Amino acid sequence: MTSRINQQILASDGGNRCSSVELTVIITNVHNQPPHWEQPEYWVTVPENTVRDAKIVTVKATSPLGDPRVTYNLEEGLVPETNMPVRFYIKPNRVDGSASILVAENLDYETTRFFTLRVRVQNVAAVPLASFTTVYVNVTDVNDNVPFFLSSTYEATVPEGAQIGTSVAQVSATDLDSGLHGMIHYTILKDESGDSHYFNIDSRSGTIVTRASFDREQKASYLIEVQSQDGSESSRPGQQGQPNT
């Protein structure tokens, strides 16, 4: 009776280049069955600021053989979406025979928003058999990015005598977060010089306009400070529930 079959598989392209691989098929007992997963796939959603070593999901497979033990392995990926470089690792739970997937390194919504993890489980037998399940991890955004101005200083001119409401400049900031987390509002900060009283800013567009008609002989230059603020509670440490600015 044949217990092992070896085959050579050849792949070739249109340019007459080829490569080969050896395929070995091992014949096992008809009663030897691979482990059975409790679920064919698992779906989980985690925020990007989930701490390292946090458990995100527990998976479980059982063996129908006399020896109920199984071993789990998180398959290596080839791209970030399949866990390369490593962002997750697997840890067996000896009490109930399940396994947990935990966060190995910091997640970043702005870099990778969705992961597809392939988990392998193998039974204990003379010829071990394996089966697979897929864990889909959806990463959600948190407000961890600060809205930064495209330029640290802006210089502008306005003619003396120009009417009130004359556009002076437009400032612009960017925030890598999405939705409300990245919605930017602009304000002019008040200061002791009083220069801020002479200008208004559109909180959404960043356009600065005059509130007065200027006389160069009285005052020739003004300095104002503009703040950019995002639209939700910050997830950065030390912000005490305030938005990022």
From TrEMBL:
Keywords: Calcium, Cell adhesion, Membrane, Repeat, Transmembrane, Transmembrane helix
All copies of domain Cadherin, residue ranges: 38-149, 150-238
Main localization of the protein described in the UniProt heading: membrane
Spans annotated as Disordered: 226-245
Protein's UniProt keywords contain rRNA processing: no
SMART domains given in the database record: CA
Localization per Swiss-Prot or TrEMBL: Membrane
SUPFAM superfamilies in the record: Cadherin-like
Pfam families: Cadherin
Top-level taxon of origin: Eukaryota
Name of the protein in question: Cadherin domain-containing protein
